[in-house]
């Protein structure tokens, strides 16, 4: 029986990348480019999160709170190091992989600089959660090795529970705080979705993978459904904080 030397990508046949490991899936140059983009944006996001949490620790009202944020910052940096190491392992330059995403993420942090401790907590909780939802949407379309790494670095560093506890306590102490923080959370949601859409639009390989896999093509309807799911998850998190979305 004769076998074809033509790969699924070359023949136009759909491939289930999620069932493959990295060694096999990365034979497709478009898929490889998409994964390098994904690891690059994740790595820069983790590095930026480390910097932000270290800065937010300065706003902490107590030494205990300062120490808690410092521990979370350390966890974010460990995630960054794992992603940087993985890029090196697959013979990619980590700095070059991160560079295309620096401007978008820096713009987000510049436009959403918190003015106080509570705004910083809301930003970390809302911003990190939206980012995690976004990358989990991508993870289901990844090869098994890359998917395991992505899900590992998306693990909660403890910030979610910490933020919910502190924000709810602040609202109970002064209900007027709730209105201000709800408005702040809405602004963060808008900015975060805008930056996520910017990342998707500017990186062809990543956007194609995001909406159904390299072989499946670009589907604007699926992009819309994805962002609807992210918005629904955000509404639930605001309820957990005691805020209106």
Automatic annotation (TrEMBL):
Which protein is depicted?
Answer: Ferritin-like domain-containing protein
Listed Pfam families: MiaE_2
* Annotated ranges, domain Ferritin-like: 29-213
- UniProt cross-references to CDD domains, sorted A to Z: Ferritin_like
